[in-house]
Specification:
Order of helices and strands: EHHEHEHHEHEHEHHEEHHHEEHEEH
Distance between the termini: 23 Å
Helix content: 40-55%
Largest sheet: 7 strands, mixed
Low-confidence stretches: none
Number of helices: 14
């Protein structure tokens, strides 16, 4: 099957499986797992932070960060289309007990002046602005310029407010901008990035920040049920993800751009070419179709896709999707639209 639903659907590589089999492990809750310790040290260095923490998932990483930065009742400023708002099940209210103050996002870019206007003054009636969250690469497929992150960071520092970066696809953003990841993470106080999105690890994400922040987050990870035991088996795959798989993301980007261009050449399809910055292709079908029928059709052609969200389809390239697969996907799509 060619699976275009996400870049989380990949199989671990042979090297990952071998590393997992041979991993030296211990009890990570006691701090005794050498492979987890190696992963956390390597990950922290990679993003220019003092310390890092291995967590089960991206949502877990974002939420443990909110819980660690904020007090209950604090307000978090973030974009109305970001992952924390749209796709994390309202967990910010359940876990951290915070209020989200959403700003109108211009395809992932937040207006600095609007951020300034939404920072709460010290008033009896107001919640405290406890955190500002940004996302890069954005889940809409776009990469946010470093200059924008720098401006937001400057505003946050002037008001003594921390910045958390949802960097689920941080290394896609770095590849698209042709910079090291630490050049992006230099403008945040904490960052979460996934090992299982685009990097082929079967499980896990990383949260990084100051040592004080990570010490507190480690206790909150335990509170949230994320204290794992012999998790070096998983961390071993994460090390391969960071050392090897980050270096091939440009291939997924090239395949996505190729897929976007070829789909856009078909009748009855409008591809949002301006949003194809990384490995995601967003498009809408301008012809009246039954989406359940096209999903079934793709499945019969050994292609897995998700249905539309607000009328927009998304195809995601990944390590298991080749250049040859791209041509086959376009051929099948054209066949369906012209039947």
């Amino acid at each position: 099957m060619i699976d275009l639903r996400s870049d989380t659907v990949t199989n671990p590589t042979t090297k990952m499986r071998e590393a997992m089999y041979n991993a030296v492990v211990g009890d990570d809750v006691y701090g005794d797992d050498p492979t987890v310790n190696e992963l956390e040290e390597y990950a922290a260095k990679l993003v220019g932070k003092e310390a890092a923490l291995f967590v089960p998932s991206g949502t877990f990483g974002n939420q443990v960060s909110l819980l660690t930065h904020c007090n209950r009742g604090d307000e978090v400023i973030l974009g109305d289309d970001c992952h924390i708002v749209q796709h994390e099940v309202g967990s910010s209210s359940v876990i951290a007990g915070v209020q989200l103050r959403t700003l109108t996002s211009n395809k992932g870019i937040l207006d600095v002046e609007e951020i300034k206007s939404k920072i709460r003054e010290d008033d009896l009636h107001y919640p405290k602005t406890g955190l500002i969250c940004v996302e890069n690469a954005h889940s809409n497929g776009r990469v946010i310029p470093i200059e924008v992150l720098k401006e937001i960071y400057s505003v946050a520092k002037n008001h003594d407010i921390p910045i958390h970066l949802d960097g689920a696809r941080l290394f896609n953003a770095a590849a698209a901008l042709d910079v090291e990841a630490k050049e992006i993470t230099g403008y945040c106080d904490s960052v979460m990035f996934c090992l299982s999105k685009g990097l082929c690890a079967p499980v896990g994400s990383i949260v990084a920040g100051t040592k004080t922040f990570i010490d507190k987050a480690r206790k909150n990870r335990k509170l949230m049920g994320g204290g794992l035991r012999q998790s070096g088996i998983l961390a071993a795959a994460g090390l391969v993800a960071l050392k090897d798989m980050t270096k091939r993301l440009h291939i997924d980007h090239e395949n996505a751009k190729n897929l976007a261009a070829k789909l856009n050449d078909l009748d009855n399809i409008q591809v949002f070419l301006e949003d194809t910055h990384i490995n995601m292709v967003f498009f809408k079908i301008t012809k009246d179709i039954d989406y359940d029928d096209i999903i079934s059709y793709y499945n019969k052609k050994d292609i897995k896709v998700n249905g539309p969200e607000n009328g927009i389809m998304r195809f995601v390239t990944n390590n298991d999707v080749s250049e040859k697969d791209v041509d086959y996907i376009v051929e099948c799509t054209n066949e369906y639209l012209n039947k």
